[in-house]
């Protein structure tokens, strides 16, 4: 019988995807939860008394996030006031079903839940948008609308912070995508654990900070954790998922992981090292150098959301949708 490499007492029941160690289930839960706790504490993600919204889609990442945030908040007495925030994009057969899972999570974790919908905010559901524009740029619309919807929901809830279920695989994929595209401005920012919604890369951050407590947590371990603990989550892909480029990065990353699991962490560390190096160079070249003036940050003339332009990105997209149709403003 192989013995757990961590406790040396129990029988090993699994091979840990991140390290390849043979360990027992109890040690897996302990190490999984403790690493997330360390990410939260080392990066000082919250302060005592913060009201924190967990972005909840009903999928495995956000369900495990709701589970671990509730557990760690109690175990380590963070003193956080947790709430669930869901965005209903209006995708029949996908989001309506996954929101049923979130509603059950609300009861299971005893957390208040707010659902904000694209239909209510923008007058358009994703089903209507796809009926109008097809399935080519739908994720661009959806991404811009979701970012703003999360901020609007969070401000209704009066939260200080939003946490999302982005995991280590997501971050490594984003590093690879930015590298493949030669998008160094994004490459520099994409490994940050906490970000704030800005309409442009240079705009001053004004909205609610959002963090990724799973930044160093492997997707395979999230799936394992949810499976062993029999957590209630929804696992169907969005019907309109056509993000082809990310798909290539994902397949490439999974191939690398098969050969060497540490590749995921190493890609994230490379992105972080690039970010740190660029930060040093910015500081070194600052003396005597004319600094680019910060872009003036204002509010969208139409909906009031932060924007460095007259109209925010969502309102620009809405204009294209509403052309030839009754004008809809963000509610
Ligand atoms: Fe929206 Fe695209 Fe994600 Fe579907 S796959 S939820 S359309 S961003
Ligand atoms: Zn606007």
Summarize the structure.
The protein has twelve helices and ten strands. It is of the alpha/beta class. Zinc ion binds next to α12.
Describe the structure.
This protein is of the alpha/beta class and 331 residues long. The chain folds into two domains: 26-282, 3-Layer(aba) Sandwich (Rossmann fold), CATH 3.40.50; 296-331, no CATH class. It is built from twelve helices and ten strands. The strands form three sheets. A six-stranded mixed β-sheet has the order 5-4-3-6-8-7. Iron/sulfur cluster is lined by residues 89, 126, 138-139, 142-143, 238, 240-241. Iron/sulfur cluster (SF4) binds next to helix 6.
How many beta strands in the DSSP annotation? 10
Low-pLDDT parts are 199-205
Silhouette = globular
**CATH topology (level 3) name of the largest domain:** Rossmann fold
Helix content: 40-55%
Radius of gyration: 21 Å
Overall domain count: 2
CATH class of the largest domain: Alpha Beta
Q: Mean pLDDT, rounded to whole units? A: 90
The CA-CA distance between the termini, in Å, is 62 Å
* The CATH homology group name of the largest domain: HUPs
Order of helices and strands: EEHEHEHEHHHEHHEEHHHEEH
Class from helix and strand fractions: alpha/beta
